[in-house]
Amino acid sequence: MTFLATGARGTADLRHAYLAQVQRRRLYSGLLTILFVALMVSGFQIAQARNAGDFLNGITHIFDFPADIVDEAIAKAGNLPGHIWDALPPLIETINIAAVSTLIGTLLGGLLALASTRGLAAWPRLIVVFRRLSDVLRAVPEIVIALVLIFVLGAGPVPAAIAIALHTAGATGKLFSEVNENADLKPVEGLASVGAGWVQRMMLGVLPQVAPNYFSYALLRFEINIRASAILGFVGAGGIGYELKNAMTFGQGKLDEAAGIFIVLFATIVIFDQLSGVIRHRLTYGDA
Amino acid sequence: QEITEFRIGLLGGENAQDRLANNECLRTYVEEALGVPTTLFAPADYNGVIQGLLGGNLDMAWLGASAYAAVYLADPEAVEPVLVKTNLDGSFSYFSIGFARADSGITALTDMQGRRFGFGDPNSTSGFLIPSVEIPQITGHTMENGDYFGEVVFTGGHEQTIIAVNNGSVDAGVTWADGLGAWEDGYNSGALRRAVDAGLVDMNDLVEIWRSRPIPEGPVVVRSSLPQDVRDTVTALAENLYATDPTCAYGVAAGDTAGFTPISHEAYETIIEVRRAQMN
Amino acid sequence: MLEVRNVSRVFGQRTAVDNISFRVDGAQFIGIIGRSGAGKSTFLRMMNRLTTATSGQILVDGKDILALNGAAARAWQSQCAMIFQQFNLVPRMDVASNVLHGKLNSRSTLTTIFNMWPRADILQALDILDRLGIAEQAPKRAEALSGGQQQRVAIARALMQDPKIILADEPIASLDPMNAQIVMDTLKRINTEDGRMVIANLHTLDTARRYCDRVIGLRDGRIVFDGVPADLTTDAAREIYGADESFNEDATSTSLPADKVAHLHVLPMAAQ
Amino acid sequence: MLEVRNVSRVFGQRTAVDNISFRVDGAQFIGIIGRSGAGKSTFLRMMNRLTTATSGQILVDGKDILALNGAAARAWQSQCAMIFQQFNLVPRMDVASNVLHGKLNSRSTLTTIFNMWPRADILQALDILDRLGIAEQAPKRAEALSGGQQQRVAIARALMQDPKIILADEPIASLDPMNAQIVMDTLKRINTEDGRMVIANLHTLDTARRYCDRVIGLRDGRIVFDGVPADLTTDAAREIYGADESFNEDATSTSLPADKVAHLHVLPMAAQ
Amino acid sequence: MAATAAMQSDLLARFRGKRIRSFALPALILVYLTYVFFAFDLPGLASRARLDNAAILMSDAVAHKVHVTRDNRSGEMSVSIEGSRRMTFAANQRPDWVQVDGDIVQIDLPQGHSVTYDGPVVSYDYPGYGVIRITSDNGIHLDLPTPEVPDFINASSTRVAITTPAGRLSVTRSRTETLRYFPGWELFFFDLASPYWGMSWAQVASTVLVGERLDPAQSNVSLMVSNIWNNTIWRHGDVVWALGETILMAFLGTFGAAMIALPLAFLAAGNFAPSRAIRFVMRRIFDFVRGVDGLIFTIILSRAFGPGPMTGALAILTTDTGSFGKLFSEALENVDDKQIEGIRSTGADVVQRYRFGVIPQVLPVLLSQVLYMFESNTRSATIIGAIVGGGIGLLLTQAIQTTADWEKVTYYIILIVLMVFAMDALSGWLRRRLIKGDGSGR
Ligand SMILES: Nc1ncnc2c1ncn2[C@@H]1O[C@H](COP(=O)(O)OP(=O)(O)OP(=O)(O)O)[C@@H](O)[C@H]1O
Ligand SMILES: Nc1ncnc2c1ncn2[C@@H]1O[C@H](COP(=O)(O)OP(=O)(O)OP(=O)(O)O)[C@@H](O)[C@H]1O
Ligand SMILES: [Mg+2]
Ligand SMILES: [Mg+2]
């Protein structure tokens, strides 16, 4: 090509630098790839070795159990409406667990967030403490708190609600404080200048700004918490998860019941998912 | 036909770590005898072991009678009972014990009308299956909520039932015990005894309100599709365990035992019928 | 009435306000001028207790308001209204509520956060808005208003406080010339009609000359000028702004003729 | 060399390009001008096979490139480089990698997706960047560059393709005047030094006049002007742009003198 | 004044509305909470709550008890930690507060309390109250210094239990047992079989550094490490493995799901899907898989794969494929077409187009989603492990449900929290490293 002759000499350093960079990058990305592949492969082998069943053998039987459920549900299709009807009261309990824990959790989370946001905190010195507190609440799996509380309070919805509420408080505490950090401080200062107290500044200056975001996150949390409360039912915390577990573990003979409960649970999850998705979409894009 | 590994399933009742620890000696013996890597699995509940056996992913397990019935009903070809644990007195049965708090005033099942009753695990023989059949014969009503009992719940396991009764979360519940020894000790073995030993309950606070007919101990089962020589080897090993290593046998059997004796499917036919009757 | 005694404020290494003292008797319109960073905002914020002073006293009717704490400090804030360059309204709330915020200090927390304003307060807010010519905006959200209207809402909030002193921190810096004039006229009216003292930080000399009874010039936190606007010669301005010979007063003027804007906007073109 | 025969493109109801035909011999610099929506982009995109034509033929050295499919069509794309108004680089990748993308068609898929470019290709990319005066930017991410630099990277990518024809769709519409000039000069240099045909959609008449050997005017998808820039009178422009008497050529000019910008910015002042 | 009456009444009406609205929400919440208060039977719960259980839990979490047991039938004595066979002191290891002299056993408790077993007679010396004498020949006979039975004694004709701040004594016909509490976790490093048992840290250090070989087969260090690792009580080796299994489930599940979801997400993204029908079907599949929780997959998969960590990993993988499919396809729908077109105009084929036009754009988004999920999946893996029978979750739930080992529960909880913290930190660090740094756009 005609232009290749130009300027080749003056840029020798540049070339070397760039070629070296390419080499280095290839090396890094090669190493990273090898490391990742090695982790995946060896991880899989360890999991395979420590598992009772074999992967290749199991994959061919993957639909055995679902097939049993479907067979039995079809064979006793007449029972299904009854099972679905019976599943409604525990379903309401599950939804109540989720709703209460979302409500209380987000309220606590809101307070935690206020206490851990610079510029808003009533006690700025304790910000670090409250941040750590949110982290810890977030890190402890719900099942841990739920099981301990079941021991003290007995089985039922309350331990689950408390466990999920605490986890929600931690999670929303972090999210909300991120929202708070983006809040405009000018209105707060405006309110401070008229002699408003801390509560007034927060309720009138901050809350109106952050409320839509809070609400959107709370809805997302509610969606997650419905699942969480269903899961905690598996360890004795009541609700529909408890019914599902009992039917499922009894196995053959009650699989039609399991199918009925499962249909109810699944429909609920999907309905709340879609609903909250629509509302959240409207909150973020709708009235802006 | 060759096997490349041997997998033993352990039923709940103790925490997973202790189960693994108590059966470690058995694992070593089996590994030596078969010459293949042997692993212990401690699923969280009865169902984990049942599914493992049904899926062909466990080769051997010690089941409860009801859990064996569950496997048999789902797939009669899956496993075969070979041994059963015998008590010191030579029997191989135990009891489902109904109990309540002493200060509740409840002394018999007839005092339980309209109150809360607690089962354990749905796959437990003494914690669900047998009482669910025998108790209605006494009360004359089904176990449905509100029919005789105000509410019937599953607590999830024997330990949870004891705590629930002691707490008052349920008014009465059922759990297992060998029925030997004294009530005040929580009998010689069983869930009550363990709770007493752990300092969780004081037997003075509890009363027995019902006792089932003797329930056969669950069988040790092996997977039917294993090669015959493998089955023979492990069966012989378990059968002789008490003679060769009593300490190990104590751990494996979770208490004092006279050893394991051979048993066959026929011993469980009644239980299987009972379980079949529980299916809807 | 107002006496400022040796007030200073230090931020880390930097002395933002350096030992200033002056005295005001009667309801004057005071302008504070000075370069960016001269300490104007810091001084006003100290008066309103938004920033704490490092040392010194500010005596109002003989009482040192810098020594007040807690509820007493907030009570003082309610007597000394502040108007900000960026209005500092609650944008998502309606105009009337924003004005009512002027009464936050004198009403209980619980009633205010549940919108339980006394009927008299609501009517008063509406009257004040009416006086400032924006009564019909009362139900709208504050963010829906133009800058000039928002600043008038801020003034309405200040009036709602029924303050002795109104502090205004560059109240017209974010406004276009027309709105700037409306806002300054309003402040002047309040000053003369109601007899409230106004202290305003101003960016431009011509505004200061036109509206103030007295002008204080700050430079690097110190008072370098204190006198009537008539004394504000170009030399005095040079002293305040620390400008060299090329200082051109027009560059700070708010009443820009069209051709001046052009210069400013054409400049970035040359950059690549 | 290039012959366009009755090429049309219909989008639903709308005929974006309506039966156009023209012929180019030799490595000319062709400008295509026309109003927004006239079909300029659609035509260039059809040439590069980014958009399929509804009917017609485009013959290049006698071969109808509209009839090509699959690998052959891609091979044609590599011979006919395209430059976009928005540069269309991969912003997160470094400049040299972006230039190397010009070789995607001639290197195997497997080696390229792992970024395993031959050393010679890398050196060539650096040389091309050097020729365009941005060699020192080679290791930077494309997004870190200014618009003018990014467009030069896009040209470098085009050169990497070693194309017969370079298509440029409003290459300077997103650039400020200085960068616009650099980019147009570069294209012109490639046109004359390397002897590659350049077809550029242009927004402004003065650019077309200054750089093109031949100008084609489109209106509503039809050719309404085809001639040398000298023929591009105000009347011809009116014909192309469909403007009425008030048409003022300056309004489309890129080289704005300062006083014109001023008008634009002073306007909002009057609004309240 | 001048504001019109219409304006005034309008504004007053508005404020009335606002007032009602600002009360409505709290009122609604209050009504709902009241409903739940009764639906969850909180009044009943308050009476059922066993705060003494909480006290046991708390004290047991930070303390352990030593059982001094006599079998009244055989007369056999044993001193063991937590009454466990595996923690029974050999006769020469017995603590000095238990003195066995033939048939007489003298047990010293704190605060001057003491217990004496003397044949069938057991006496408890409670300073400030007196000596309680229990005879267990045939039936239990209680002999008190006061006429009333104080409430720290729970007595029946078959069993007597005395619970004092200093310890616990229970007597039945078959067994006499005294419990003494000690702070701390027992045998945490060395069990009773270890030669290091009973040594102070200084002694351990000096043994390891300069001491003679305790076991001729290995050095003292490796003996120490292996003693700790194989501690039969705490089983640190198993616990470390369990933690590893939990992280492994999360790792395999998350990254496996990401690799499967990426190609599928193209089919579900509006701008890449070959047809609307395929897109619709893919979306519904993702929704379904996401809706069925990982836990249910756990149960379904445990038939096919049996207990173990791979089953858990596959359960996580399955649900996350749904979540990632949805997230990824949304990210793909937001890609900038200009970049793809730029690549396409050079004559690149489909694979190259995706590789250079799409991947560099979405990779940072995807990576950050995957890493975020990884962190949250370590928490899920704890729960899933509890069901599937693997990992730290199983150990934890079983320890809680069998209620015997609160100190282990505490230990596991601490480990789990540390693990989640560590994963949180790791994923945060990786997010910062991989997404912000590195100009290659890999
Ligand atoms: N919160 C603060 N922390 C640290 N330094 C500050 C703070 N507020 C103000 N300063 C410093 O104090 C000095 C005076 O600032 P001040 O805002 O009072 O100036 P000003 O005259 O109002 O300027 P402007 O015209 O820019 O508003 C400046 O150097 C500023 O950087
Ligand atoms: N993908 C498409 N689908 C439907 N209509 C299209 C599409 N692309 C272009 N059009 C229509 O075809 C017509 C010609 O568009 P084209 O982009 O070629 O015009 P242009 O001359 O490049 O205009 P501009 O100066 O705005 O880029 C326009 O009416 C446009 O709306
Ligand atoms: Mg300022
Ligand atoms: Mg175009």
TrEMBL record, chain A:
Gene3D superfamilies in the record: MetI-like
InterPro entries from the UniProt entry: MetI-like, MetI-like_sf, PhnE/PtxC
Bilayer-spanning residue ranges: 27-47, 95-115, 136-166, 258-279
All copies of domain ABC transmembrane type-1, residue ranges: 91-276
Membrane topology type: Multi-pass membrane protein
Location (main, coarse): membrane
Domain of life: Bacteria
Pfam families to which the protein is assigned, alphabetical: BPD_transp_1 (PF00528)
Keywords: Cell membrane, Membrane, Transmembrane, Transmembrane helix, Transport
PROSITE patterns per UniProt: ABC_TM1
Cell membrane among keywords: yes
Localization: Cell membrane
Family: Belongs to the binding-protein-dependent transport system permease family.
Protein name: Phosphonate ABC transporter, permease protein PhnE
Organism annotation: Pararhodobacter zhoushanensis
Lineage: Bacteria, Pseudomonadati, Pseudomonadota, Alphaproteobacteria, Rhodobacterales
Automatic annotation (TrEMBL), chains C, D:
Start and end residues of each ABC transporter domain: 2-245
Entry keyword set: ATP-binding, Cell membrane, Membrane, Nucleotide-binding, Translocase, Transport
Entries under SUPFAM superfamilies matching the protein: P-loop containing nucleoside triphosphate hydrolases
InterPro entries referenced in this protein's UniProt entry, alphabetically: AAA+_ATPase (IPR003593), ABC_transporter-like_ATP-bd (IPR003439), ABC_transporter-like_CS (IPR017871), ABC_transpr_PhnC (IPR012693), MetN_ABC_transporter-like (IPR050086), P-loop_NTPase (IPR027417)
SMART domains, alphabetized: AAA
GO molecular function: ATP binding
Domain of life: Bacteria
Keyword Translocase: yes
Keyword Nucleotide-binding applies: yes
Protein's recorded name: Phosphonate ABC transporter ATP-binding protein
Organism, scientific name: Pararhodobacter zhoushanensis
Lineage: Bacteria, Pseudomonadati, Pseudomonadota, Alphaproteobacteria, Rhodobacterales
From TrEMBL, chain E:
Pfam families documented for this protein: BPD_transp_1 (PF00528)
Stored Gene3D superfamilies: MetI-like (1.10.3720.10)
Domain ABC transmembrane type-1: 243-427
Record keywords, A-Z: Membrane, Transmembrane, Transmembrane helix, Transport
Main location: membrane
Membrane-spanning intervals of the chain: 20-40, 247-273, 285-305, 354-374, 381-400, 412-430
Location relative to the cell: Cell membrane
Signal sequence residues: none
InterPro entries: MetI-like, MetI-like_sf, PhnE/PtxC
Membrane topology summary: Multi-pass membrane protein
Family to which the UniProt record says this protein belongs: Belongs to the binding-protein-dependent transport system permease family.
NCBIfam families for the chain: PhnE
Protein name as annotated: Phosphonate ABC transporter, permease protein PhnE
